[in-house]
Amino acid sequence: MRLILSGGGTGGHIYPALAVAKGVREIIPDVEIIYVGTEKGMEKDIVKKAGYPFKSIDISGIDRSSMLKASKSLIKFPKSFIQAFNIIKNFKPDVVLGTGGYVSFPVVLAGTFFNCKTIIHEQNVFPGLANRNLASRVDYVLLTFEETKKYLKAKNIKVTGLPVRKEIVEVQKDVAMRNLGLEDKFTLVAFGGSRGAMSINKAMIDLVEKYKNEDVQIIWITGNTRYEEILNKLKEKIDLDKMKLTLRLFPYMYNIEEALAAADLAVCRAGASTLCELAVLGLPAILVPYPYAAEGHQEKNARVLKEKKAVEMVIDEYLDGDTLYKKVEELRKNPHRLKEMKNNLKKEAHLYALQDIVEVIIKG
Fold first, then answer.
1. pLDDT tens digits, 182-198
2. Residue 357 belongs to some domain of the structure
């Protein structure tokens, strides 16, 4: 079997594709896989480190800030389509799978002109421009959210969910707490991605000050770029050695699954991968959607879960220390609401997402 994977721009498109590659290889050890991305995208380094052959095409995302910039992006499309067409012609795949991002569009589109199975996976509630245009052409459309169906016309649609790393599922809460030096009491985890989220970090500085004399625990992942600055601001406001609050401050966590397992509540963005991890764990969250996500997809993701009483949400521009403190306190003092959120989130979990996606690839 020969398989082409394509997806890029963010880790949210890349890591699920690599999970699928691993899943297929476990069933078909001699499968031949190549990954198609761009030289400028994160996927180049990530895919090569994962050990898969990498092919690149020349394309960039549509910059909607001006017609001129958008036109420059669109001019590249015919060239990228021809490059993708030639890769498929030479490799002769049995299946082409796109996991999202602008790079997957010409690759999957080119695949529809060959005698191979074409599949797209849409991660968000509101489908991206590429997948809206591909849906009616491909053989299978796979979804994270049931609500996405109403936006797409396709031959075959299946809600599979999004693959979640095994570490997320397998970590034990008591082991995680022991490794992080935490006790059995209310624990909040806050994070905003590898680079952090400025709005969440600013609000968290005030939140830590408000909780300094409270018997609670906070795990705060600041992002690499702002860690020293945030640590210095905290030291200016608070004597960190004399707090009743237990604070675990990290620039980045490779073992973030332990932080999630130890927590009773999260404060984070609303990317599809994050939401799937929260759902599998049943970890209640206050979501702060990234305001510049394409077509507002993070806010749409968050709103669907809020309507199901599975999360709370604060719009980024309205987030500050007081607002966050009130939200956290409302939930901390209402264990019944936390339990309701936990149960409603677990209803959204797709524990067998990877198996379901791999089955469509192999069997159809």
1. 999 999 999 997 667 99
2. no
Give pLDDT tens digits for 124-154: 999 988 899 999 999 999 999 999 999 999 9
In whole angstroms, how far apart are CA 39 and each of 12, 52, 88, 93, 161? 18, 15, 18, 22, 29
Question: What is the count of structural domains for the chain?
Answer: 2
Token pair belonging to 258: 């332990």
User: What integer best gives the mean pLDDT of the chain?
Assistant: 92
Last residue in a domain, options 136, 159, 182: 159
| Same domain, yes or no: 137 and 189 | no
273 vs 108, 179, 261, CA distance in Å? 22, 24, 16
pLDDT in tens, 107-120: 999 999 999 999 99
Residue whose structure tokens are 């695949």: 111
Per DSSP, 296 falls in state: G
pTM for the whole structure: 0.88
pLDDT < 70: residue spans in the chain: 60-76, 194-195
In 156-224, which ranges are E strands? 157-159, 187-191, 217-221
Where do we find the tokens 């490799």? 91
- Select from 270, 290, 29, 11 the least CA-distant residue to 165: 11
Longest dimension (CA), the chain: 68
Query: What are the strands, taking DSSP E only, across 116-240?
Result: 117-122, 140-143, 157-159, 187-191, 217-221
Q: What is the pLDDT of residue 73?
A: 52
Q: Which residue, of 119, 139, 159, is where some domain finishes?
A: 159
How far, in Å, are 61, 294, 345, 359 from residue 65 at the CA level? 12, 12, 36, 40
Same domain? For 147 and 276 the reply is no
Which residues constitute the domain of residue 50? 2-159
From CA 307, how far away is CA 6, in angstroms rounded? 33
Compute the chain's Rg from CA coordinates: 21
